[in-house]
Amino acid sequence: MNKKKVLIVGSCAKEYALAKYLSKNNEIEKVYIAPGNVASGEFAERIDIRENDVQGLLEFAIKEEINLTIAPSQDAIRADIAGLFQANSQLIFAPSAESYKFAISRAAAKKFLYKLHIPTPKFGIFEKNSLALDYVKDSKMPILITADVDNENSVRSVCTTSELSKTCVNDLFLREEPRVVIEEYAYGHPFTVYVMTDGYCALPFAAVGDYKFMEDGGAGIFTRGMGAYVPDYKVSLDVVGNITENVVNPVIKNLEKRNCPYLGILGVECVLTGDNNYTVTGFTPFLKEHDTQAVLNSLDTDLYRLFEACAVGSFADDYTEIRVNDLSTVSCVLYARNAGAVITGLEMVDDSTEVTHFNTSQNNYFEYLTNKGRTLVLTQTASTLSRARELLYDNVEDIYFEGKKYRRDICAETV
What share of the chain is helix, strand, coil (3-state, %, to 5)? Predict the structure, then answer.
């Protein structure tokens, strides 16, 4: 059997984790990553092509006879890498630029949810500072204030007073954000349900418990994620089935009617507000940076074959479910207050613990240096969540860099 060549497009933690995971697949001859981060060069060949240079990526794929391209990168998707590759008969696992808009724009997601009558917190979308400030005056606190486009540099703030809310709104417009979204803060347990879809059929494969606040106990800055665990024991199979049937399927069908089917992984971000009751707060394209490795560790199905089936159009015929294992996985993000600090202790981490890099760099001594902000994700899998948590934090303590910060209470309720 001829082994496969895979091209992954992107440069951050999710692409790193995916490339490392697929490099262990015996059916895959070689994994290329464009451009990747420094650490991904340990197991994949880095290609010096920008993520949004889709023509250059296409030429590389054709020249190297790539069997499948996987593009989690927002820049690549926005440049419609899927449309270009499909037009040139190259297999690709990625949504089109048009179908992707609702997943990356919080304003578009909110409008989509409202149109489809899917439960979501009350919200307002504003392009003018004065109108946003007027809305804040009459809002019930706390509220969540966000920039429209969700990326690693996006500002997201949970505000408990009108004065703090006004400051956050003013700051966002000073940053020249074109749109600001203000919504009621949803109390409850945050989680994400992931599905895989070829644009016509969708199958769930993970429910992930999320930790978004920076400080223990759910306090401090509202981040894109400081930790996660799989499976989320608080989310029942009934809830996952309900979300698939009443959220995912209407979204997929609506996009299909618009002639822009969504091919890829889609995350539905939710808050569990009571027994089997939930509200949808938004969407995420592909897997989130901090939980990618945890989700991959839970799979008991060949990921390459899943991606390939979606790309060739056989997904609905080949799969009725996506099998997962009965193990438990916990991840923890290590945050750096400054860039350029030397990271030590990586060699002390157990082989069973996965270390995923954000955009770390290296010095002349080949030591890894911190990225300001989220820098590393440590992921541990074991038979139970409590055991995974115990092993995880033993390894977290072995890693050191100046300004290191992390949450100490991930999965603490399972102990």
Answer: 35, 30, 35
Residues with Cβ within 8 Å of residue 219, at least 6 apart in sequence: 213
- Same domain for 131 and 77? no
Query: What is the pLDDT at residue 153?
Result: 66
The verdict on 142 and 178 lying in the same domain is yes
**Structure tokens, 391:** 């092993």
* In a shared domain, residues 17 and 63: yes
**CATH code for position 370:** 3.90.600.10
240 and 305 co-located in one domain? yes
| 331-370 residue pLDDT tens | 999 999 999 999 999 999 999 999 999 999 999 999 999 9
Does residue 178 form part of some domain?
yes
Higher per-residue confidence, 128 vs 221: 128
Q: Pull the structure tokens for residue 402.
A: 């100046």
Domain enclosing residue 340, as ranges: 328-414
199, 298: one domain: yes
At residue 151's C-alpha, the angle toward residues 149 and 157, to 5°, is 75
Together in a domain, 264 and 365: no
Across the chain, mean pLDDT equals 95
What 3-state class would DSSP assign to 286?
A: coil
**104 within domain boundaries:** no
Distance CA 91, CA 73 (A): 16
CA-wise closest residue to 177 among 103, 105, 118: 105
- Name the burial class of residue 414, with classes exposed (0-12), middle (13-18) and buried (19+) by CB atoms within 10 angstroms of its CB: middle
33 alpha-carbon distance from chain centroid: 18
User: Which of 47, 81, 97 is a domain's end point?
Assistant: 97
- C-alpha distance from residue 183 to each of 1, 33, 125, 150, 339 (Å): 53, 38, 9, 15, 33
> Which residue is it, tokens 């749109």?
179
The CATH number assigned to the domain holding 239 equals: 3.30.470.20
d(CA 98, CA 260): 6
| pLDDT above 70: percentage of residues in the chain | 98
* Residue positions counted in the chain: 415
Q: 315, 195 in Cβ contact below 8 A?
A: no
